[in-house]
Amino acid sequence: MSNVIDEAVKTLSGRLSDGFDGSAKFVIKDEGAIVIDQSGVREGDDETDVTLTADVKTFQAILAGDLSPTMAFMSGKLKLDGNMGTAMKLGSALA
């Protein structure tokens, strides 16, 4: 597991300690993927309701609270494939 993925799993696990209603995957270019679902947060590439793709810099800015997921999406830095409603719930959980 890359350091970026490892840190992201730790950070998101703390924020989503009760799991997540739905399933989402963050694909971080050149690093790997993280799955978030009812079971928690883990490294993985499972099929999910929504897939969000970003580069490392964008993903880290979202996690740090320096960039909202909505602004990242609107500016084209965050790509979305799948259920927009699930993505919006995840965005609210990350804020």
TrEMBL record:
<dbReference type="InterPro" id="IPR036527">
    <property type="entry name" value="SCP2_sterol-bd_dom_sf"/>
</dbReference>
<dbReference type="Pfam" id="PF02036">
    <property type="entry name" value="SCP2"/>
</dbReference>
<protein>
    <submittedName>
        <fullName>Sterol carrier family protein</fullName>
    </submittedName>
</protein>
<dbReference type="InterPro" id="IPR003033">
    <property type="entry name" value="SCP2_sterol-bd_dom"/>
</dbReference>
<feature type="domain" description="SCP2">
    <location>
        <begin position="21"/>
        <end position="94"/>
    </location>
</feature>
